[in-house]
Amino acid sequence: MAIGARRPICWRVEQFAIDLPKEADTQALGAAIAALLTDGDFVCLSGPLGAGKTSLARALIAALTGEDEAPSPSFPLVQTYEAPEWTLRHFDLYRLKSAEEVWDIGFEEALEDGVCLIEWPEKIEPYLPHDLLAVRISVTGQSRAANVTGRGNWATRLASLKEKLRENKTNS
To answer: CA-CA distance, 20 to 82, in Å (whole number)?
Structure first.
């Protein structure tokens, strides 16, 4: 999408919660999200250090590209992958000191086309589009859970995401 071009804004917001007791559950969530991605999507992963954001990101990347050993972009801040239909840019913004630094690491290009997968999106909140999928992972003791929120066009796709997760659970 060209800079300055705007999608129609849909203010609808939908959400659901899911328990992630095992690593396989986190991987299933990543794969289910991957199956629904389209050009121009933003997926934001939040949660404390060690919550499983990178594990979820790796599962999503593996489902799209077949790359099982996707490196964390913690030090380069962004990794780029070629998916069959578009470019996937995986941003890890933990080390950003200010939101404006995002423009120095290729975020402008990411706004133009492809899919953005962003860890620590709260660092650039003012620059995020309204239409996005937000996954907030929480940890309580040894248990993990995710609050999944779809804004705008993702709000209407959340039912499909829940259905994919049910199918995966039934088939496993």
So the answer is: 28
57: alpha, beta or left? (left if phi > 0; alpha if psi -120 to 50): alpha
CA dist list (Å): 53 to 2, 8, 113, 131, 172: 29, 29, 23, 20, 23
> Per-residue pLDDT for 9 more than 70?
no
Q: Is 99 in contact with 107 (CB distance < 8 Å)? A: no
pLDDT for the residue numbered 1: 43
- Identify the three-state secondary structure at position 45: strand
Among 141, 139, 132, 168, residue whose Cα is nearest residue 14: 132
pTM of the full structure:
0.86
Enclosing H/E stretch for 11: none
- Residue 139: the pLDDT is 92
Main-chain dihedrals φ then ψ at residue 126, nearest 5 degrees: -65, -20
pLDDT tens, position by position, 145-158 = 999 999 998 999 99
> Do residues 21 and 144 lie in contact, with contact meaning Cβ atoms separated by under 8 Å?
yes
Cα distance between residue 136 and residue 129, in whole Å: 17
